[in-house]
Amino acid sequence: MHRAFFRSLALSPAAVASLTVCGPLQAEEWQVPAEKGALQQVLQQAQAGDILRLAPGKHEGPVVLDKPLTLNGAGKAGIAGNGTGSVVTINAPDSVVEGLELTGSGLSQETLDAGVKLSKTAHRAIVRDNRILDNLTGVDVHGARNATVSNNLIEGRQDLRMNERGNGIYVWNAPDLLAEYNTIRYGRDGIFVNTSPKDTFRNNRFEDLRFAVHYMHGNNGVIENNVSEGNDIGYALMFSDRLKVRNNVSIGDRNHGLMLNYANHAEISGNQVEGGGEKCLFMYNANKNTVTDNSFEGCPIGVHFTAGSANNAFKGNAFIANKTQVKYVGSRQLDWSTDGRGNYWSDHPAFDMNGDGIADTAYRPNDMVDQVLWTQPSAKLLVGSPAVQLLRWTQSQFPALLPGGIVDNAPLMHPPVRATPNSGVQG
């Protein structure tokens, strides 16, 4: 049976907390007024498992949760920090921070001051449906396992230069983190992972950042259904193994849509990169990755791979209207087709006489002239000369003269159809 009663908090007559008790062992609910000192006193008196419902308005921070509690603002309450440290620090497992506007963290990069900080004991903590605005770091997940960060609007300090800002979500040694449906803007990196395995980042939206997702030493992670727009780099994957990077979008990122640097055994599938400023996909010493069913469109270079990148499989990708479809400098012959299926090339004048969807002639994106231009940039002055044109004609007539490089022996006649994922804050 439900019963309600009131408990005085030794505040002003209006500053009274209402509690609801549902059975002897169930959580109590506290109604916390937006008055000076009210939230701190309720935090002292509340017991593990209690729910604190914050009245509309600003509540004083910073706040530390040393026992499992729920802070609920119903989208109308906020907690304002005092400009030092983190606004809300969670030390207890199974705590929830939801429906709040959180502002006013400190600016210390050393302590990673944040709107919400999850310490190494905050396992299974949930941070959801919040507006986390004008803090150094949005959410710092620092050692907590199985935490969830979902449906938050995270906006950094626009008054700081980009390198002075913190990250939207900083992840350190936080296995099995789920970050989904967040919109992150105006920070340094949207999500920065440092030494954390088995994390999942999905359906997030990233804008006006350095990197949308920056992965360092994070193995077995999943990055899927995210949208990166207008950042320096979309998805920077470094020194990590066995990542699954699926169905993400990069639109108008200024340098690269996808970058793999010492990233190995990754599954790169179903992603769409459009209008990148330099390269749709850049692979540097990245080995044994599968790159399948992606779309690389409208970049100066579709795919550039170098520094010994080897044993990567390309199949089912669409290379559409890139100025240079592939840049590869090397002597090896690499076949970009698997089991009779290659990739779609928008500049391949192909025919399909038997109607099987596979072009009748192979496609080679680079020739000897390309190799010379990449190694000797000054030779660009001769591109239009009769000698260069004769060399290209000769190579087309005598394939044995072609250098090592990429060849697609089963090019596709049509690009695959892709859908834009549902990303960012919902509702």
Describe the fold and architecture.
The chain is mainly beta. Helices cover 7% and strands 40% of the residues. It contains 3 helices and 40 strands. It has a 26-stranded mixed beta sheet that branches. Strands 6-8-10-13-16-19-22-25-28-31-34-37 form a 12-stranded parallel beta sheet. The chain is elongated, with a radius of gyration of 27 Å.
SS content category: mainly beta
- The CATH topology comes to Pectate Lyase C-like
Distance between the termini: 34 Å
Discrete helix count: 3
CATH top level class name: Mainly Beta
- Name of the CATH architecture: 3 Solenoid
Mean pLDDT over the residues = 88
Please, what is the CATH homologous superfamily? Single-stranded right-handed beta-helix, Pectin lyase-like
Radius of gyration using CA atoms only = 27 Å
Overall geometry: elongated
Number of domains: 1
Low-pLDDT segments? 1-16
Question: How helix-rich are the residues, as a percent range?
Answer: under 10%
Q: Report the count of strand segments.
A: 40
